[in-house]
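Quick one, tokens below. Sequence please?
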């Protein structure tokens, strides 16, 4: 099985650059293009506990976590670097 690649970018909640993110919100607008909000996995888990979280957030977090684990296993990146687990 080949894992999907990382979804690098900045977490919309903690503003830290991360390798793996999860979709936490779809932003709809009255006119013009909408958008989406991505958070690192720890922030996504925290957001999922709030009343603002969409009902599908658990699925997207689980998917992002499984892809992160598969990606790390394929590349042998399972070790922790710098004392912080990869997110």
């Amino acid at each position: 099985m080949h894992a999907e690649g990382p979804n690098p970018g900045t977490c919309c909640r903690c503003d830290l650059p991360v390798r793996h993110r999860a979709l936490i919100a779809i932003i709809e607008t009255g006119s013009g293009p909408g958008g989406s909000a991505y958070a690192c996995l720890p922030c996504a888990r925290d957001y999922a506990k709030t009343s603002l979280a969409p009902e599908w957030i658990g699925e997207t977090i689980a998917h992002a976590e499984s892809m992160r684990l598969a990606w790390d296993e394929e590349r042998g990146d399972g070790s922790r670097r710098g004392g912080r687990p990869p997110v």
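The chain has two helices and four strands. The beta strands are 9-10, 17-18, 21-27, 35-40.
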